[in-house]
Design brief:
The chain is α+β, with helices and mostly antiparallel strands. The protein is 22% helix and 33% strand. It contains twelve helices and 35 strands. The two termini are 33 Å apart.
């Protein structure tokens, strides 16, 4: 090729490349979906069916806050039961065929109070409005329509006592006084409090049991917290319990457990690669129905042919979606079904089991076209020490693992950290993909569902091998040619926020931008400001995170606020002022330390929020700011 031909070729190649780039940007701009469509409150969500199967309820916005509505099946008109305008209702359920109970906190403080309201909107009453007290549901007592068992840290902020509550009169009776170490309570099928789960010696888990409520609890099994039996429900003679157990094994399995003597009777189902995460039963037919686990998707093992048939029938009618049961009536004939996928929040359906008839009720976000959403690909890569790290890679719509090259990427480690990411629709991820970013979510060591060894590998590894797993995921993307090494950001909330800060501390040139959302910055101060009801778990946290009195050298090395002199990456920090888990001081520290050095920090604080932004207008503010921040630093 002559020089002139070469120059001509390069010029033509440049023009074609430029045209392609401009065309791609034009298409992306045309396909850009309004930010609010990803983060606005749904039109209707949280559907449940009444115990008699005659009504369904749902949450829908009223003055931009999610409130409860009820509608008779077959009718068009609905009734709004609640008038909350300061904060969304956190959760609700039908206590009986005429009355609904719901939980709500103030400004994100997580001190939830329990309210009751009739299905016609009358007799709304707060049942546990005590200042600074958190309400938790122990048993909804389906066979006792006017009662519920709750637990409250009313007597002392540190521990929760169980109460039997009359939802009509508000009268409460304490069923047992928590000696200070009990973390959970469990009833039998007659609503009798029979089991307690305690922490003893700081790091040992103990199951306590009694044959009847007029007896004292006695210990039946004590194990180190790394081994556990988790009771789900009694058998139908109220004698033994169905549970998950990892005693003497790596993965949690379904067992029938002799609760009175603290011994496994038999293992009923196990998976070689994943922990069993839940066990279900039929209240009406008195049979165990299924067990669930999460591989890259949720999977089920069926113990019961009727339940297997139900899911097979539903899958035939909703072939491209995952399926969950949101609610069912007492006769177990009428169901509320929820569908979803990686590209859709899905819809709610009414299902008549006897007729095998599925009727759509409502799309959750009809304004989002799933054909324009991004696909979520399950992936795995090898960490530097050989451990296989599973995860998910979301690519801008239309791209595949083969066609994705040189993209701007957002690394998105999950919170917890003892939790996990799973396959499904994530509005944050879809929003970022719609803006042209690939998103990598990894289940780093310590993520749950992969067995005891995978979990324990995270102990005292905050900022160390756990962080390496995240970093190695970034290098995996770069080596595959998917990521543009100069346009990589990291964003996470809670522990993911800590991982974000630690990422820009230990690998300061790897990321071009970072977004920390309610994240820990100083391990010393974090462990001093935990909620009071976490105090009984403190020794356990010392073993899992580290002890500030003993592990001082490690804590100094792995606390981003104490190593802020290493950070050169532009940072955006968002924090709720009322956060009870990650105190606002965690964000203040890192912002102050970087401001002193002249490092760019954007800081957003919402005075009416806690551990994450629940109010719609605050979500909009946060994601608008994040969009602008990322575009400035990693978008060409």
């Amino acid at each position: 090729m002559k020089k002139s031909d070469c120059c001509s070729f390069l010029g033509t190649f440049f023009l074609v490349s430029l045209f392609y780039l401009l065309s791609t940007q034009s298409v992306m701009a045309q396909n850009q979906i309004p930010l609010e469509d990803f983060f606005r409150n749904p039109e209707k969500t949280g559907y449940q069916i009444s115990p008699d199967g005659k009504f369904y309820s749902y949450l829908a916005p009223y003055e931009n806050r999610l409130n409860i509505f009820v509608q008779q099946i077959g009718k068009e008109k609905s009734i709004r039961l609640t008038n909350e305008t300061d904060r969304d209702i956190a959760g609700y359920y039908w206590a009986n065929k005429n009355r609904i109970l719901y939980l709500k906190d103030k400004g994100g403080d997580e001190n939830f109070a329990l309210y009751g309201v009739d299905r016609d909107g009358k007799n709304l009453k707060c049942l546990t409005c005590f200042e600074g007290v958190r309400t938790m549901i122990v048993d909804d007592l389906k066979d006792f329509p006017d009662e519920v068992i709750i637990s409250l840290n009313k007597r002392t902020p540190v521990v929760f006592d169980p109460y039997r509550l009359n939802i009509k009169t508000g009268e409460m009776t304490m069923l047992a006084e928590n000696p200070g170490n009990i973390q959970g309570w469990m009833t039998d099928h007659e609503g009798k409090l029979r089991i307690a789960i305690a922490i003893v010696d700081g790091v040992n888990t103990q199951i306590l049991y009694r044959d009847s409520e007029d007896q004292e609890f006695r210990p039946v099994l004590t194990t180190n917290f790394k081994e556990s039996v988790s009771p789900y429900f009694f058998d139908f003679d109220n004698k033994n319990v169905y549970a998950t157990s990892n005693l003497g094994r790596d993965k949690s399995v379904v067992v029938l457990f002799d609760i009175a003597n603290g011994k496994e009777i038999e293992a009923l189902y196990e998976h070689p690669d994943y922990d069993i995460s839940s066990v279900s039963f039929s209240r009406k037919r008195k049979v165990v129905t299924s067990a669930s686990f999460v591989s890259w998707k949720r999977e089920r093992h069926f113990f019961d042919q009727q339940t297997k048939t139900l899911f097979e029938n539903l899958q035939k009618q909703l072939p491209n979606y995952e399926i969950g049961i949101s609610s069912l009536d007492d006769n177990e004939n009428m169901y509320i079904i929820r569908s979803y996928s990686d590209r859709s929040l899905g819809a709610y359906y009414l299902y008549d089991f006897a007729k095998n008839k599925l009727t759509k009720i409502h799309d959750i976000s009809p304004w989002l076209d799933e054909s324009k959403m991004a696909q979520v690909f399950p992936i795995e890569y090898e960490a530097r020490d050989g451990l296989v790290i599973p995860g998910y890679l979301t690519l801008p719509n239309g791209l595949t693992m083969e066609t994705a090259h040189n993209l701007p990427v957002v690394i998105n480690p999950h919170g917890g950290p003892w939790a996990r990411d799973s396959w499904g629709f994530n509005p944050e991820v879809q929003f970022l993909a719609n803006r042209g970013y690939a998103v990598l979510q990894m289940n780093f060591r310590g993520s749950t569902g992969y067995g005891r060894d995978f979990w324990e590998r995270s102990f005292k590894q905050w900022g160390l091998t756990m962080q390496n797993d995240i970093t190695d995921g970034v290098y995996w993307l770069i080596n595959k040619g998917i990521a543009d090494k100069d346009r990589i950001a990291i964003y996470g909330g809670s522990y993911g926020g800590y991982a974000t800060l630690q990422g820009v501390t230990v690998t300061p040139t790897l990321y071009a931008a970072a977004v920390n959302y309610v994240g820990v910055s100083n391990l010393f101060t974090f462990l001093k400001t935990i909620p009071p009801y976490w105090q009984p778990l403190l020794d356990m946290m010392y073993e899992m995170v580290g002890n500030p009195e003993i592990d001082t050298v490690q804590f100094r090395a792995t606390s981003p606020a104490l190593n802020a002199h290493k950070i050169i990456t532009p940072l955006f920090v968002a924090q709720g002022a009322n956060d009870p888990r990650v105190n606002k001081a965690e964000s203040d520290q890192i912002v102050e330390a970087l401001n002193k050095r002249g490092i760019e920090v954007e800081y957003m604080v919402k005075d009416n929020e806690g551990h994450g932004f629940a109010n719609e207008e605050n979500r909009f503010d946060f994601y608008r700011a994040m969009e602008k921040f990322l575009a400035k630093h990693i978008k060409k």
